[in-house]
Amino acid sequence: MRHAKVLLVDDEVEFGTTLAERLRLRKYDATCAFFPEDAFRGLRDSPPDVVLLDMKMPGMDGKDVLREIKRIDPTIEVIILTGVGMTQDIEPLLENGAFDCILKPIDIEVLTMKINEAQQKRERS
After folding, report:
1. Distances from the Cα of 86 to the Cαs of 24, 53, 64, 103, in angstroms?
2. Closest alpha carbon to 82 in 12, 33, 14, 3
């Protein structure tokens, strides 16, 4: 199985670049978008298999970004990244097409397992 193409959407530049680098070291094709608008352009220009989406960003929240991702390409799988205090918002996201949710701080082994599962689901659709 090839490694997934992953787009990380997070307004925290240091977190995003570090996580993308950790994924690239594991042979994933990982890129970052620090603003939702950049993510939407990336989705249209070079669609990823999986989007890692931060729940809270300035301007648009995770629900709005998820909705737009699914409008652009409903086959792209989205894994929500959120802090412990945001767990009450997870269920509506899962009901609206998110593949899964992972709490920060991120366990890279759990994340890569979820990315692989999401990629397999996308390949079956």
Report:
1. 28, 13, 16, 9
2. 12
Would you state the pLDDT for residue 57? Answer: 80
Averaged pLDDT of the chain = 92
Which residue type sits at 98?
Answer: A
Q: With bands split at pLDDT 50, 70 and 90, how would you rate the model's confidence at 87?
A: low
The answer to whether residues 118 and 77 touch, using CB atoms and an 8 Å cutoff, is yes
CA distance to 34, 38, 67, 75, 119, per residue, from 122 (Å): 24, 22, 17, 6, 5
* Strand ranges (E), the chain: 5-9, 29-33, 50-54, 77-82, 100-103
Tens digit of pLDDT for each residue in 39-56?
999 999 999 999 999 988
Nearest alpha carbon to residue 122 among 80, 79, 66, 90: 79
Q: Model pTM greater than 0.90? A: yes
